[in-house]
Amino acid sequence: MTTIDATTQTDRPGGPATTPILEAHGLVKTFGRVVGLDGVDLELYRGEVLAIIGDNGAGKSTLIKCLTGAEIPDRGGILLDGKPVHFKRPQDARTAGIETVYQTLAVAPSLDVASNLFLGREVRRKGVLGSVFRMTDRAGMRERARRELRELGISTLQDVTVPVENLSGGQRQAVAVARAAAFGSKVVVLDEPTAALGVRESGQVLELVRTLRDKGVPVIIISHNMPQVFEVADRIHIQRLGKRVATITPKSHTMTEAVAIMTGAAEA
Amino acid sequence: MSTSMLPAHDPALEFLDHRTPIDRARGLLHRYPALSPAIVLVVSVIVFGFLNDRFWAPGNLSLITQQVAVVGTLAVAQTLVILTAGIDLSVGSAMVLASMVIAQVTSAAGVPAVPALMIGLVVGLATGGLNGLLVTRLKLPPFIATLGTLNIFLAITLLYSRGATVRGAEMPSLMTWTGTTFPVFGVRISTGVLLMLGAYLLVALVLSRTAWGTHVYAVGDDKDAARLSGISVNRVLLSVYLSAGAILALAAWIQIGRSNAASPNVGVDLNLDSITAVVIGGTSLFGGRGTVWGTLLGALIVGVFRNGLSLAGLDVLYQTLAVGVLVIIAVSLDQWIRKVRK
């Protein structure tokens, strides 16, 4: 649809000359006879929050899984920083700098905050203790964890030795987001980050999303919650029946219009 | 903006934090899982001492440690497996298999002591590796996989040894070295007890100071979360079962020294006794929570109860009864502790 490209061009930050940090074109993914993605394009630019909305079965999750290596698209390509990438598993995307916070929080409840931040990429001590005895640098990791949390403005999580299970839902989500954001990642993907949270805690997580964006880390956020999407997103990618039907902004469209496009009641 | 995120002094949170003393106790036990077994051990040592003054005699304390050495070592292996939310019903019978192989190759085949111990280690690793492959490749629940291997190892042991015991005198002296004792402050400590303590120290350090240790806890906590964090769950599980295999080979050596023989009929109780020690030691059967030091306390508690009740003149059946009650109390306590701020 030509109208989509028009809106995309005019609304993207940084002017038309900027290349997207993450770009997908013509993604197709089928599951047997079910078409999950039917030729989806997506662009994410530096310093923006891109929301992906769509009805159930519109292909939001499949799209995200293709971008983060959890699914391999049948056709189409993904460019990260202008270079083609082919993710075979989530770890590939992670190594390339795409961090995902899953709907089911990927934290280990009995481990403390610092251990969770560094889970799967522990730092070893210098010298023989690290190389031969494989000891982890606990003090260093805790210090770094405190710094990362401070930089993200998560002030009540200064005690990084507390087990995550002792934290509130919002704080746990903050730990998960902080882990995604903490290691110089290029893109952070949040899948329904506020689905299980109350109003106040949702607000905290959205604040964290804005902090990330202001630090220059682009964020893709999937949400069902229209007020939250319109509050935090710079651009909104609308998915319908396996296709992108429009990319709008909170300024160009109202919530009602967005829902109408999403459900097929209106053209983009 | 940045400091307004999650305000430090939220009146609502402070209100909610007015916890009762019971809640605080539960929080403390939750944070330090070895605390409750430590209290039980201290109290029981004092109580049994008052019931019979022979309990505190150096000779008796020495006896308790020696009685605990084999099951205590097996319980280290069991702790590793249970931390991953698994269970190993076969540790005891695998240990007996390893001890019979060590005994046979030294006595009948004339293999020297050190190579024989290496062969025992290989047997241990093979049993652990088999369990690990059944759990990771065939995706069998650990309970079922090890229930199967328990019987397999038992049968192989009896077939291989033809049911015959090998006496300590038929083996090189290094095989029974683990049963020799030396005095420490008037208490005779056996080499086997020292080896057991060495196993505890090593595994405690590895669990708390290496990435592998963190991953063991993470896998037991939530397998999916661990996988999504980039941890190779199957590799961690396989390595845990292999480590358990190496540790049970050590237990086999300690067993030969302790009983001054290798017998195919000793180890069947040890399968469950090792689980008992782990559970009484505060490690959660649901994985991800517990320490090996708790397990050491758990093994000592069982030893102290058996010894103390026997000195108090009670029938051996009451010891079994007491251990059963302890297990149920320990697991109930764990259930209650785990309800903290869910």
Automatic annotation (TrEMBL), chain A:
<dbReference type="InterPro" id="IPR050107">
    <property type="entry name" value="ABC_carbohydrate_import_ATPase"/>
</dbReference>
<dbReference type="InterPro" id="IPR003439">
    <property type="entry name" value="ABC_transporter-like_ATP-bd"/>
</dbReference>
<keyword id="KW-0067">ATP-binding</keyword>
<dbReference type="InterPro" id="IPR027417">
    <property type="entry name" value="P-loop_NTPase"/>
</dbReference>
<feature type="domain" description="ABC transporter">
    <location>
        <begin position="22"/>
        <end position="266"/>
    </location>
</feature>
<keyword id="KW-0547">Nucleotide-binding</keyword>
<dbReference type="GO" id="GO:0016887">
    <property type="term" value="F:ATP hydrolysis activity"/>
</dbReference>
<dbReference type="InterPro" id="IPR017871">
    <property type="entry name" value="ABC_transporter-like_CS"/>
</dbReference>
<dbReference type="GO" id="GO:0005524">
    <property type="term" value="F:ATP binding"/>
</dbReference>
<protein>
    <submittedName>
        <fullName>ATP-binding cassette domain-containing protein</fullName>
    </submittedName>
</protein>
<dbReference type="Pfam" id="PF00005">
    <property type="entry name" value="ABC_tran"/>
</dbReference>
<dbReference type="InterPro" id="IPR003593">
    <property type="entry name" value="AAA+_ATPase"/>
</dbReference>
